Amino acid sequence: MKCIPAIVLVIAALASAPVGAQESEAVAQAKDAAASWLALVDAGNYSASWEQAAGAFRSAVTRQA
Fold it and tell me: Are 49 and 40 in contact, with CB atoms under 8 Å apart?
């Protein structure tokens, strides 16, 4: 019976490992998307940057602005 807490800890550790990997991938994808969008803005390609922006951004800022 003393080994049950240890087994629970091992299972919890194994179950949480993929979540960390998925989060890291999501963060990497977000950074890549942000860098791509900023490159468009830096290049003065405002129309394309507006098209690639999130819906909330497009709702707040018109294409012409």
Answer: yes
The answer as to whether 65 is a domain residue is no
The distance of Cα 33 from the centroid of its chain, to the nearest Å, equals 8
DSSP state of 44: T
Based on the structure, what is the number of domains in the chain? 1
Domain of 37 in residue numbering reads as 3-60
Claim: this prediction has a pTM higher than 0.70: no
27 within domain boundaries? yes
Number of H helices, E strands in the chain: 3, 0
Tens-digit pLDDT string for the chain (65 aa):
555 656 656 666 666 656 667 778 899 999 999 999 999 999 999 999 999 999 999 999 898 88
